[in-house]
Design a protein that fits this description.
Layout lengths: L3 H6 L37 E3 L13 H7 L13 H12 L22 E7 L3 E2 L5 E3 L2 E6 L4 E6 L4 H8 L4 H4 L3 E7 L2 H7 L4 H21 L2 E3 L7 H7 L8 E10 L8
Antiparallel strand pairs: 1-6, 2-5, 2-7, 3-4, 5-6, 7-9, 8-9
Helix pairs in contact: 2-7, 3-7, 4-8
The structure holds flavin mononucleotide.
């Protein structure tokens, strides 16, 4: 509906706010240290390296094929994904090219290279490497781009139900073998862009998810962007300190069912 409130909210899509900012007063220009580019791992947390995917996963398809064949999938095969496939998808979405504690360039662009996103995973089907060794059990995990590793968080059960609730009752989300849940720590971007951060954070998330769509297509997997979710349930599931960090986007991923003509 075209009403006063929705028209007023359109300002979030505009960049007029930039003119209101005194950039000499941003935290960056005031000399406040740059916020960490990745959330810290606490001493009690277990970190598991992702297997290298290059020898195992062979992405198929030219870029024009992948663009043409990308679509949203909401039905997936029952089986688990391989740990090498997950490794590839994480590399494609948030992988770091030249690790450095100060400045990292990644496989997705980000306004001012601020990368305010963290990637969480809900793994509903235990995930093995190509040798059949289970690397990642059922539960919630967080991706560490600097180490290309996962850190285990918790195993709330029944996980599928919690994920579906977090996805505002969209059951197909909870049924996927792995669900990507992206949070933002807005201050990473606000440190540089102050009030002009909101729109660019959302744009950053879009790029990451598009990489997921294309990379998933290249290995016979499918995904579906999900922006209709329950903010409170999603943040609670991952124990996020909203408003300093909160979920902004999700995407279930799984093997596509050949010949599936859903949607
Ligand atoms: C920002 C964004 C949010 C979306 N949110 C949802 C969602 O919450 N649930 C859903 O089923 N699909 C969601 N979608 C998927 C769209 O419905 C889908 O992209 C659209 O119907 C076009 O289909 P295609 O992706 O197969 O081309 C979302 C897509 C985008 C880009």
């Amino acid at each position: 509906m075209r009403n006063k409130e929705t028209i007023e909210l359109r300002r979030h899509l505009m960049d007029t706010v930039r003119r209101e900012i005194d950039f000499s007063q941003t935290d960056q220009n005031l000399g406040v240290p740059m916020p960490p580019i990745q959330k810290e791992v606490t001493k009690d947390q277990v970190l598991i390296k992702l297997p290298s995917w290059q020898e195992v996963v062979t992405p198929q398809g030219t870029l024009d094929y992948l663009i043409r064949n990308r679509r949203s999938y909401r039905k997936f095969e029952e089986k688990a994904m391989g740990a090498e496939e997950l490794s590839y998808l994480l590399w494609a979405t948030q992988g770091i090219r030249a690790p450095s504690p100060k400045r990292t360039l990644r496989n997705a662009p980000s306004a001012g290279n601020r990368h305010s996103l963290e990637t969480y995973l809900a793994i509903t089907k235990p995930m093995a490497n190509e040798k059949g060794e289970i690397l990642f059990k059922r539960g919630l995990w967080r991706y560490l781009p600097l180490e290309h590793a996962l850190v285990y968080l918790s195993s709330p059960e029944p996980l599928e139900t919690y994920v579906t609730e977090a996805a505002l009752g969209q059951a197909f989300v909870g049924k996927a073998p792995v669900i990507f849940l992206w949070s933002t720590l807005p201050y990473r971007t606000e440190w540089r862009y102050s009030k002009a951060s909101q729109k660019v954070i959302a744009l950053d998330a879009g790029h990451v998810c598009q990489n997921l769509y294309l990379a998933a297509t290249s290995i016979g997997c499918g995904t579906c962007a999900v922006a209709a979710y329950d903010q409170e349930a999603a943040d609670k599931l991952l124990d996020l300190p909203n408003p300093d960090e909160f979920i902004i986007y999700m995407a279930p991923v799984g093997k596509i069912i050949q010949g599936n003509s859903e949607d």
